[in-house]
Amino acid sequence: MRPARAYVALGSNLGDRAGYLALARDRLGALPETSLRAASSVEETAPLGGLAQPAYLNQMVALDTALAPLELLEACRAIEREAGRTRGPRWASRTLDLDLVRYDDVALQQPGLTLPHPGLPEREFWRRELAELAQMGW
Fold first, then answer.
1. What's the CATH number for 4-135?
2. Where exactly are the structural domains of the chain?
């Protein structure tokens, strides 16, 4: 069985933003049966949701993984917790946010996980980062 291609969006707007993105890349690449294949450029974006808060650093990574979508999502949440993320109000600032954006061509809707990510149509920076990865062959 071949691994699935998963795309995970990384974001941070508190503390050492670049350091949190680096931590996420390292931890994602070290997950069992998972390889980090490529990473888009890092870009700074305005926060979503209209709250007054610092700008985000964002990046998209391509993974090959044998983890199931829910396993990968739980691993992302564990990495967020390692980075000091606490879940607060929607759109609040965070040290690290990891979103499972796509998982092969899987279309899924269940409690806690929708694939592709429902925010993809509104987030131009995600589409731009995915396009950059596609140009690299990922």
1. 3.30.70.560
2. 4-135
